[in-house]
Every structure is written in structure tokens, then in C-alpha cells.
Specification:
Strand order of the largest sheet: 42-46-37-47-48-40-49
Number of strands: 50
Largest sheet: 7 strands, mixed
Number of helices: 18
Distance between the termini: 24 Å
Oligomer: single chain
Mean pLDDT: 92
Low-confidence stretches: 1-17, 857-862
Radius of gyration: 26 Å
């Protein structure tokens, strides 16, 4: 982020309450936002809003840090509950709020609490609580009948709609939904209710697994690839009968369900309509998957946003017939190489008598649609990740909730306390006058989203690409001390003059000598950012999957400790409540697949080491090497991951040294080379720079010891590859999945990137704004493939790092600083007692990371 953009960010995020037509800001993905209308910052990660009937007040729940209720008395007075940064457990919100008819009450879906709180809008105190009666209920969202009599609440735990009589506060009926229900809407006359189902399957326990035997009874590797006959029917794996998932095109998933609510006490399902293309295998790989998300209705139609398909589905009001689909993308001119480029990511939807307004989370805009002609009139630029919209009571303004606002900005540097990205990424409310100048607004949307693209010479062709994915670091904490880069050496705790939190007097430690040597020998960037915020979304971004609205809402509430799964629950939604720690689930699969399918289905071979395997139902404990986990649900992996993975290479587990990961990689890689069949793409997970609690007896005396372990393993991998026969035809990319556990003086998303190979400019530091899709775009270009989606098509590539003159000199590793890490002493973690044997290993813990920022600040000795 340039100094100009940094100043603008600070001005808008911290110094003003309401800003008119904010000036442009560059996002971590290098696109621009130029939000139209007035701007009001709210607490992080809002997903919905409610406008009071008199039009004078708006309520926006936020599920960031802290969980908050933002109360806006128009034109712009904001009250936030709680009004402190503390993540108060007593403030229970999710993504559903509705005012009573007279505005005296607010109905608030509390999420994990499984209830609806009734709040007084005078005191903002709870005056009643309506508990959903299901075991493991999760009150996700709700809507209120026009007369205010009946409340329709979506229970994502039990996959159902609960109907409550507000006059008595009693539940009067409950009706089932499909998988992963997401949104609800009523017809204007209240006689029909509509629910979107964004999931595909109900995930079940593997037979023979019980809560008391998960360490021994789980399976070591995902049971099947998806889509496949085995996934559909089930199979016997490692001595266990693994149930099948059923038909991927079953109407329970990717669908709109319609209910007869003429008598709410006797509500029934009257229509189930599958939306999107049927999921099927083609010579180019699997296609299909729509992820129905937002929904609204008028007297004649119901309108549904299909997040994976970039369309609005127009359905006849009875819910039985799809009338048409309205294409949203303003980028149909881009080269698609045989299929449309998805990435508009429609999310929320609202409308009036003649128009629809659709929030386009992938391109930071709102589409305006004429209902009568079913045509897109234009697009309005808004903030980062618009999640929901509403029209003012007088019809003169459009309100848009921007989930990520303007991004995080810096979280380290002079006079700035380190802060977690979930604290910094303020959401916002845009208030946009209607009607808008759509011709000019659309031009701005197109310009903003093309801002990252740089026309340059074509990339060279190589035969072998490597993608090494590490964990959680910012640029400054690794390369803040790198000569010639825009770094802050005072933040480089894992640099060449690092320090430890545990022993502050220990200073000038060479924590990452190999990363620095590789940067000096090859290329890096001081303007590369991760697109995600945490591992759950970051690993999806890393393999070309922009998280759907369901996934974004899932990880934010999960990381906030307000979305608790229960693998042994009878409630189907609770078994897969988080959406997977890093492994993509079938619901995540974009319409035309991910990086895996894009490369594999182009006739090229792939090989995977540890990436994409942390699925729902993955338990990681000490003593589970080599794989690092046991799986107890029938969750699959994408078919190329299933067929190409080295099953002896560990996934994420901080109890396993990265030295072991290197040894296993070297063993398998040598065997591949001996066969003369090196893949076109190799993906490697190298996670120990995530860090964990120190284990002195195992060779990890400090948190920095894990980073040093990771650095040495990285150096060894590069040394091995550079001495191989395929080195002359290779390019290697090393990036983090996210940057949530570090500080950076430019932006909390800025992260280290290394690009390595014989055709890489020596010691080059790129200042080109790039992000994860830039890496994918470069891999595709090097392998002679076209774009997969809008994410990579609208990104800058890494072409400035390449040269036409090769240097075939191999790399030689740098020795570690033995004061913090001695590879000869690195050991697998072992449980010390029965209680520890039952505990999971150190995964991303947002609360722990946030608490650690203060400790880290105190440990800085430079």
C-alpha cells in the first residue's frame, strides 16, 4: 500500500464517521474501490442489516472482533454494543435481525445459542428469548411476517425452519430444509416462504467411530475423491465402512425450497427446485455447483443469487419452475478458453416494484436489474465484499453492507500497537442516492476491477511448477530487514536479527537464513498480499477457490468462538458447521473447478504433499504421524487431490517436524525422478512457521524454533530441486496461506513471497501489487493454460520477476542458528498423559493469536 493509499485508509477508517464519496483505495488484491455515496464504518464482518419501518434507524450485526450490534440513527449517529474492543460473550449476534412493526423491538438471531433474542430498541436490553427446541440448534437468520405476527427462523444446526408466534413467544411449527440452508424470504402476501440451500450433502460419521475411540478408529486419508462413484455409493476404507454421500444432484442441495405458509402452524414444503447446472464429469473435468445464497420475492417471482454461477435465477412464484437466469458479469469480453470466467460472486439481493439490487461480493459492486426485461442496467461501485443491501423506506436510497469495508491497513510500525486482522478489518455501510448514474458507475466498476492487470511480455514456458504453501506470516516479520525492500526491521522478529518472546535477552538470531538467501539469489516482492484473512479461507484462495458467502460467514463466526461444531451430533448441520479447516469441501467447488482441476484436466500431471486434507471431521493429535490426523466423517477431497497425494506426507500438525516433511518429500520426489515422470505441478504444504507452544524436550525451545525448522526444510527442498534434472525447466513459488499472526507496517495482509528458478531475476524485489491469484495466473501462463476465473484473469502476473537468460547454478542451504533450532534434536510430539492424548494440536486460534499480539509487542528488543 503506497503512502497515499495508507493516508486515505487511515482517514476513512479512523478519523471520519461519515464520509461522502470516499476517494479510491487499493485493496490487498490490487484492485481499487471507489465507493459511491456516504460511508459509515462499523464493527468488522457485517453480513446483514435491518431498516426500521419509519426509516430512521438501521441495525447491523457484526461477527468480527468484537461481536457487535451496530445501531445507526440516521443520518449517521452510530452506537455500538459493546462499545469496547472486548469480545463480550454476552453479545450474541449472527446474520439475522428484524424490527417489529412498530419498531419497539428487534428480533436478533443469536447463532450458536440456538435462540432469538428480543431486544428493546429503547434500552437495547433483552426483554425475551425464544429458544429453538432442537438439540444443537443454530439460529442463523430470520424474517418477520408483514403483520408482525410470525417469525420464521432458520436453524442451521438442524436444517429446518422454525416458526414462532410473536404474540406468545411459542414455537408453532417446524419444517425441514435442504443442506446448509442460508437465507429466507416471504412472498408479499405471506403465503409462501422461500429458503436457499447452499450445501450439497449431509456428512456422516464413519461406521465404528465413537467419541471414545477417535484416536484409533478414524481413517488416515480421505475416503474418496469427488465426484466419483465411490463418493456417491460409499466404500470400505482401512477396515471401516464409509457411507456414501448420495447423489450430488439430489434436490436437498444447491436448491430453492418453497413452503406453503398460509397457515403458519401447518406449514409444509410444496416445491423443491434444483438450481445451477447438474454436477457432472466432462472431458475438461467436473462442472456444476451453484451455491444458492440470497433470496427475495415479489407477487410473480422469487429471485435467487447463485454465487458460483454469477447469475440471478428467476423462478415462478410457486417455486416449481426456473423461468430464466440473468447473467451479471460485466467482463464477458475476457478470454475464457472454453468456459465463462466466474468470480462476480453474487450474494445479497433486494428489490422494489421495478428493480433488483444484487450485491456482487467478488467485484465490489451492486448490480441494478430491470425486472420487466430481466436485464442488467448497470453496476454501482461500493466497498470490499458487499454482503447485503436494503432500500430505504422512501425508496430514495440504497443501503449496502460492505463486509470488509476498506481492508485492514497496517497493524505494526511506529506508534501503532499490533492488532489482529479481525479487529482491524472494519465493515461499513454505504448509503447511495437513487437513481444512480449507472453508465458512469459501471465504467468505474470495470476500471476498479481491471486496476491490477498489467500488460507485459508473455511468460516463458516451463515444464514443472512448484507451489509451496506455508502458514500465517507477514512480510515485515520475515523480510522487514531485507535490504532494498519496503520493510520495518523493528518488526522482523523472524529475520536475520530476530528475537524470542520467551527469552528477550536472546537477540540477533538468524531465524530465516534460507529465506533471506533465496530472496538475494532469486526474487521476492514487497507488494504481495494474501487474499484471505485466516487459514480457513486462505487455503481456498491458495488453490483458486474464492470462498462463498456461506463459507465466509462460517469461518468468521467459527474463529470468533461462536460457531461450534459437534461431530457426534444428531443435528446434521452441526457435524460440518465450520466448512473444513483448510480442505475444500464439495460445496466450495466453483462451477468449473479449482487450480487442481484446471491443471489436471488440461492433460497435465499433478502431485500433492499435504495440502487440502484438513476436512470436516479431521482430528489432529500427537502421535498421529505420518499423516498427522484421523478422519471420522465421510468428507471427500477433489478427485485430483485424491489421486495425486503422497499419503505418507503429513498435513498440518505442529507435532511433526518440517524436517520429517522434507525427508518424505525427498524420498517420493527421488522416486518420481527415477521414473522420468515429473509432474507439471507439485503442491507442498510446509506449515511449521505457523508456530505452536514451545516443546523444549522435542527441540522446539521457542516459537521461533518452529519458524527456523520451517526455514531449513524450505532450503533443503530448494537445494534438492535445484540439483535435479528438471531444475532447468522449473519455477517455484513460496507463499503463506494468510498473514494473521504477524505485524506489518504497510498492511496486515502483506506477506512474504519467493519466486525461484533458473529464469528468475537475481536479487530482484518486485514492487508490483500482486496477490494469490497472481501466483495462479503465473502458473497457468508458464504451463500454457488460460485463465480459470475472474480472480486470476483480473490479477497482475509475476512476469517482472522473470528473465530470458537462465542461471542453472543450484542452491546450497544455509545452516540454522543452533541457539533456537538444531535439526538433530527435532522430535515428534508425544502426549505426556491421557488427558493430553485427547487434546487437539495447535490449530489457528483467533483468541490466542489476538492475546499474543500484546506479548509480542513486549518482546521486541530492537
Amino acid at each position: 500500500m503506497s503512502s497515499r493509499f495508507l493516508f486515505i485508509y487511515l482517514l476513512l477508517a479512523g478519523l471520519c464517521t461519515v464520509c461522502a464519496d470516499p476517494v479510491e483505495t487499493r485493496l490487498p488484491n490490487a484492485r481499487l474501490i471507489t465507493p459511491q455515496g456516504d460511508w459509515l464504518a462499523v464493527a468488522p464482518y457485517p453480513f446483514t442489516l435491518a431498516v426500521r419501518g419509519d426509516g430512521k434507524q438501521i441495525v447491523i450485526p457484526s461477527v468480527g472482533f468484537p461481536f457487535s450490534l451496530n445501531i445507526i440513527d440516521l443520518p449517521g449517529k452510530l452506537t455500538r454494543i459493546p462499545n469496547t474492543p472486548k469480545n463480550d460473550p454476552n453479545v450474541q449476534v449472527h446474520a439475522g435481525v428484524a424490527y417489529s412493526r412498530d419498531g419497539s423491538r428487534l428480533y436478533d438471531a443469536t447463532g450458536d445459542s440456538g435462540a432469538v433474542d428480543v431486544l428493546s430498541t429503547q434500552t437495547w436490553k433483552s426483554i425475551a428469548r425464544y429458544k429453538l427446541d432442537g438439540a444443537d440448534s443454530f439460529a442463523a437468520t430470520l424474517t418477520l411476517s408483514a403483520d408482525g405476527r410470525f417469525l420464521y427462523v432458520l436453524d442451521q444446526g438442524n436444517w429446518r425452519v422454525v416458526i414462532i408466534d410473536t404474540s406468545s413467544g411459542k414455537q408453532i411449527s417446524s419444517v425441514p430444509s435442504g443442506s446448509n440452508p442460508f437465507a429466507v424470504a416471504l412472498s408479499p402476501d405471506g403465503k409462501r416462504l422461500y429458503v436457499t440451500n447452499s450445501g450439497l450433502f449431509e456428512y456422516q460419521l464413519i461406521k465404528g467411530v465413537q467419541e471414545k475411540n477417535t484416536r484409533t478408529a478414524g481413517i488416515r486419508f480421505p475416503p474418496f475423491g469427488y465426484p466419483s462413484k465411490a463418493a456417491r455409493k460409499g466404500k470400505r476404507v482401512e477396515g471401516h465402512d464409509v457411507p456414501g454421500l448420495g447423489d450430488e444432484n439430489d434436490v436437498r442441495g444447491s436448491s430453492l425450497w418453497t413452503y406453503d405458509t398460509a397457515d403458519p402452524a401447518k406449514a409444509t414444503v410444496v416445491a423443491k427446485l434444483r438450481l445451477g447446472l447438474p454436477i457432472r464429469l466432462t472431458p475438461q473435468g467436473p462442472i456444476g455447483g451453484a451455491s444458492p445464497t440470497g433470496v427475495t420475492a415479489d407477487n410473480e417471482h422469487v429471485y435467487v443469487t447463485l454465487s458460483h454461477k454469477d447469475v440471478v435465477a428467476v423462478v415462478i412464484a410457486d417455486g416449481k419452475t426456473l423461468e430464466r437466469e440473468i447473467e451479471l458479469t460485466p467482463f464477458s469480453d475476457l478470454d475464457a478458453r472454453g468456459h465463462p470466467l466466474r468470480g462476480v460472486m453474487p450474494a445479497g439481493i433486494t428489490g422494489d416494484a421495478t428493480r433488483l439490487f444484487v450485491t456482487e461480493a467478488g467485484i465490489n459492486a451492486v448490480a441494478v436489474i430491470d425486472k420487466s426485461s430481466a436485464t442488467v442496467l448497470g453496476h454501482i461501485p461500493v466497498g470490499w465484499y458487499p454482503a447485503a443491501a436494503a432500500i430505504s423506506s422512501d425508496g430514495k436510497s440504497l443501503y449496502v453492507v460492505n463486509n470488509k469495508g476498506k481492508g485492514a491497513g497496517p497493524n505494526g510500525g511506529a506508534n501503532r500497537a499490533r492488532q489482529y486482522v479481525g479487529d482491524l478489518e472494519l465493515g461499513s455501510l454505504s448509503t447511495i442516492p437513487l437513481p444512480a448514474n449507472l453508465e458512469a458507475a459501471t465504467a468505474r466498476v470495470i476500471r476498479n476491477n481491471r486496476a491490477a492487470v498489467i500488460d507485459g511480455p508473455p511468460l516463458p514456458r516451463v515444464k514443472h511448477t512448484f507451489l509451496i504453501i506455508r502458514e500465517n506470516r507477514t512480510f515485515d516479520e520475515i523480510f522487514g530487514d531485507l535490504s532494498g525492500a519496503d520493510g520495518d526491521g523493528k518488526l522482523a522478529r523472524y529475520g536475520l536479527h530476530g528475537w524470542t518472546r520467551e527469552e528477550p535477552v536472546l537477540r540477533d538470531i538468524r531465524v530465516t537464513p534460507n529465506a533471506h538467501a533465496l530472496a538475494q539469489r532469486f526474487a521476492t516482492s514487497d507488494a504481495f498480499s494474501t487474499d484471505g484473512d485466516v487459514s480457513a479461507d486462505g487455503h481456498r484462495w491458495a488453490v483458486g477457490m474464492a470462498p462463498t458467502p456461506w463459507m465466509n460467514l462460517s469461518w468468521t463466526s467459527s474463529y470468533g468462538g461462536r460457531r461450534k461444531g459437534n461431530l457426534f451430533s444428531a443435528a446434521p448441520g452441526r457435524r460440518a458447521m465450520g466448512g473444513g479447516a483448510d480442505g475444500p469441501m464439495p460445496e466450495d467447488e466453483p462451477e468449473f473447478g479449482s487450480l487442481w482441476e484446471h491443471v489436471a484436466n488440461s492433460g497435465l500431471t499433478v502431485r500433492n504433499y499435504g495440502e487440502g486434507l484438513e476436512l470436516e471431521g479431521a482430528l489432529e493429535r500427537e502421535g498421529m504421524e505420518p499423516e498427522g490426523q484421523r478422519l471420522i466423517l465421510n468428507a471427500p477431497v477433489p478427485q485430483p487431490v485424491y489421486t495425486s497425494t503422497d499419503r505418507d506426507y503429513p498435513t498440518f500438525n505442529m507435532g511433526i517436524p518440517d524436517q520429517f516433511r522434507y525427508e518424505q518429500f525427498a524420498k517420493d520426489f527421488d522416486q518420481i525422478l527415477a521414473k522420468g515422470d515429473a509432474p507439471a505441478m507439485i503442491v507442498i504444504r510446509l506449515p511449521n512457521d505457523h508456530t505452536s507452544e514451545p516443546r523444549p524436550k522435542d527441540g522446539y525451545r521457542y516459537r521461533a524454533s518452529f519458524v527456523a525448522d520451517n526455514d531449513l526444510a524450505l532450503g533443503k527442498m530448494i537445494e534438492l530441486i535445484s540439483h535435479s534434472a528438471i531444475w532447468k525447466d522449473s519455477a517455484i513459488f513460496v507463499m503463506e496461506d494468510d498473514s494473521q499472526d504477524g505485524a506489518d507496517h504497510v498492511d496486515a495482509h502483506r506477506s512474504p513471497l519467493l519466486v525461484i528458478g533458473p529464469y528468475i531475476r537475481k536479487g530482484f524485489i518486485s514492487h508490483r501489487h500482486t496477490s494469490m491469484p497472481s501466483v495462479q495466473k503465473t502458473i497457468y501462463g508458464l504451463l500454457g493454460l488460460g485463465s480459470l476465473n475472474l480472480e486470476d484473469a483480473l490479477a497482475a502476473d509475476l512476469g517482472d520477476m522473470f528473465t530470458t537468460t537462465p542461471d542453472l547454478t543450484p542452491y546450497t542451504i544455509e545452516a540454522p542458528d543452533l541457539r533456537i533450532f538444531d535439526p538433530a534434536k527435532a522430535r515428534f510430539a508425544r502426549p505426556k498423559n491421557a488427558e493430553e492424548a485427547r487434546e487437539l494440536t495447535d490449530m489457528d486460534d483467533a483468541q490466542e493469536i489476538r492475546a499474543g499480539f500484546l506479548k509480542k509487542q513486549k518482546s521486541v528488543v530492537h
